[in-house]
Amino acid sequence: MKIDVLTLFPEMFDALKASLIGKAQNNNILDINIINIRDFSKDKHKKCDDYTYGGGNGMLMTPQPIYDAITSIDGYKEAHKIYLSPKGEKLTQKKVKSLTDFDHVILLCGHYEGVDQRVIDLLIDEEISIGDYVLTGGEIPAMVLIDSVSRYIPGVLGNEASTEDESFSNNNLEYPQYTRPAEFMGLKVPEVLISGDHAKVDKWREEESKKITKKRRPDLM
Ligand SMILES: C[S@@+](CC[C@H](N)C(=O)[O-])C[C@H]1O[C@@H](n2cnc3c(N)ncnc32)[C@H](O)[C@@H]1O
After folding, report:
1. Cα of 22 vs its chain's centroid, Å
2. Confidence (pTM)
3. In this structure, are residues 143 and 117 in contact, taking their beta carbons and an 8 Å threshold?
4. Per-residue pLDDT tens digits for 99-123
5. How far is CA 71 from CA 75, 77, 83, 153, 204, in A?
6. Residue 160, in any domain of the structure
7. Is any ligand 1 atom within 6 A of the Cβ of residue 133?
8. How far apart are the first and last CA of the chain?
9. Strand partners of residue 34
10. Is the C-beta atom of 109 inside 6 A of ligand 1?
11. What's the CATH code of the domain at 207?
12. Which end of the chain offers a freer environment for a tag, N or C, measured as fewer CB atoms within 10 Å?
């Protein structure tokens, strides 16, 4: 999958160089390209924001640098273009999975009070929110989207089964997990998990999964 990210703060994306996402890029499984919107500003001071028409607090990102940055991308017409926005559709695991249908995704990160509506009307296919709260910029939401979508791309996770048996995959939250030692600070790993009886382990996990979902997220069931 190719992902182009448009931002005024490219340095924030250094976080994507670490861990599994970094590895996937090194192995050419993921192609993430960070584009500095400021490089496209025609303003002599490379300004990318201005006051809002009609008054109000704060600055808005101007349309020209964003428009030129998006249209400079090879294949931008066919790519799926997303603006990260608190006004967008909320990101869920189902939505994350559906985004893997696209080979090329362009992510626009807003800042300040957001972006001029005309650039959204002209170029954006959909707006996505990572939750009902407002952040200072779309950079962290873009990284949340990249991380969650990447986990579905073959080769990104060490163990492909990992996405099939975890929270939200079957409308359930995941069961409790344990590793060594068998006893820690007086707390023992549930007997069934060390019994070697796989059928019993599966049954226990299913029951625990249902129990925790019912208690914490009955809306998922
Ligand atoms: C301070 S916010 C702008 C909020 C906007 N004035 C509003 O009230 O809807 C600046 C930028 O952060 C990003 N952002 C903030 N919260 C977000 C969220 N929950 N999901 C996705 N992006 C978000 C968007 O890109 C937005 O343009």
Report:
1. 15
2. 0.95
3. no
4. 999 999 999 999 999 999 999 999 9
5. 9, 8, 15, 26, 53
6. no
7. yes
8. 32
9. 5
10. yes
11. 1.10.1270.20
12. C
In CATH, what number is assigned to the domain containing residue 13? 3.40.1280.10
**Ligand 1 centre distance from Cα of residue 189 (Å):** 43
pLDDT given at position 161 = 59
Cα distance between residue 109 and residue 193, in whole Å: 45
C-alpha 174/C-alpha 213 separation (Å) is 8
Residue with tokens 């670490």: 18
Same structural domain for residues 173 and 138? no
Calpha distance 151→88 (Å, rounded): 22
Q: Could you tell me if 172 and 214 lie in one domain?
A: yes
| Count of the separate structural domains present in the chain | 2
pLDDT at 170: 85
Together in a domain, 144 and 184: no
Residues 155/24, Cβ–Cβ less than 8 Å? yes
Task: Please state whether beta strands 80-90 and 126-129 pair in parallel, antiparallel, or not at all (unpaired).
Answer: parallel
From 35-44, 71-80, 123-132, 161-170, the region with the lowest mean pLDDT = 161-170
pLDDT band of 163, cuts 50, 70, 90:
confident
